[in-house]
Design brief:
With 210 residues, this protein is an alpha/beta fold. Helices cover 30% and strands 24% of the residues. The chain has one domain: P-loop containing nucleotide triphosphate hydrolases (Rossmann fold).
């Protein structure tokens, strides 16, 4: 069954400003390129879709599961891959991976291993996450994301901090996933995509974006 993401009357406010008021969206399978000027709420929307932030009002539903009332089940079907500083930075890279894998029972460890090899980071398992470079941490996140059975994969500026070879690995993996009808990928990038997106969502032209 194809994934369906429904955003209904979404409102979200930071302490200093409002971001969304009455935003309505529907996302389907394939790769959606999320665009918009800086400050328009691209990262905020990804975090809301991934359950990392809670709406001030309205609903976000993935395959009928509400991100607020069915939070645990929703999170197990979604994954947000961002560019922030490492969370749980006292863990080693291996411990960080194992913690996340424990939340996703159907994660494919073989796929994870192949992407760790392809990104040339298979040997960093014993290193503290806090000691990884930006590029290493980004590759660690991406290798995990590509191994998870997430119906909704949210990727924020994935090409930042990657070398040319890693960009090629990621583009190949995302293209393969985008052609499957059981995944919804939402990706932000300030660079023009070399992967043909299934759909483009421009927040600059979207009602409900402040």
């Amino acid at each position: 069954m194809s994934p369906s993401v429904d955003v209904e009357n979404l409102g979200f406010h930071f302490a200093t400003r409002s971001v969304f008021v009455g935003l309505n969206l529907r996302l389907g399978p394939g790769l959606t390129w999320l665009r918009g000027r800086n400050g328009r709420g691209k990262t905020t929307l990804l975090k809301l879709l991934g359950g990392a932030l809670a709406p001030s009002r309205g609903h976000i539903r993935l395959d009928g599961l509400d991100s607020a009332t069915d939070a645990l089940a929703y999170r197990r079907l979604s994954f947000y891959c961002g560019g922030e500083a490492p969370a749980l930075d006292w863990l080693t890279a291996r411990e960080w991976l194992e913690l996340h894998l424990a939340l996703y029972a159907d994660a494919d460890r073989d796929v994870l291993g192949r992407h760790l090899d392809a990104f040339h980071i298979a040997d960093i398992g014993g290193q503290p996450v806090a000691g990884l470079s930006l590029g290493q941490y980004k590759k660690l996140q991406l290798a995990l994301a590509l191994a998870l059975p997430a119906r909704l994969l949210l990727v924020d500026e994935p090409f930042n901090g990657l070398d040319v070879q890693a960009v090629e690995v990621l583009e190949t993996a995302l293209t393969r996933r985008a052609h499957a009808d059981n995944r919804c990928i939402v990706l932000t990038s300030h660079l023009d995509l070399r992967i043909p997106p299934t759909a483009t969502l421009d927040l600059d032209a979207q009602p409900g974006v402040l």
